Amino acid sequence: MKEKIEEIFREVMELDEDMELNDDMNSDNMEEWDSLASMSLVMKLENAFGVKYEFEDILQMDSLSAVKKITLGKVQ
Q1: Do 45 and 8 touch, CB atoms closer than 8 A?
Q2: How many angstroms from the chain centroid is the CA of residue 45?
């Protein structure tokens, strides 16, 4: 499950396959992570996992770690 989240994250942020992901990645330390990328990430995750994020969830999804935690909480 985490691997699929990372795959979608990598696709949305247009990161190379060989780039190492870490849970501390966030909108402050990644220029690729802007508001458009955030919404694209949310939509792709909703479609992939059949979940629906609340507005509060989206606001909290400010790091890769938070994206994983919130998504896994909705799926399980």
Answers
A1: yes
A2: 7
Residues contacting 12, CB < 8 A, separation 6+? 37, 40, 41, 44
Q: Give the Cα separation of 63 and 47 in Å (integer).
A: 20
Model confidence pLDDT, tens digit, residues 7-49: 999 999 999 999 999 999 999 999 999 999 999 999 999 999 9
Q: Residue 76 — pLDDT band, cuts 50, 70, 90?
A: confident
The b/e string for 6-38 (b: 16+ C-beta within 10 A; e otherwise) is bebbeebbebeeeeeeeeebeeeeeeebeeebb
pTM for this prediction:
0.93
Give the whole-angstrom CA distance, residue 13 versus residue 68: 15
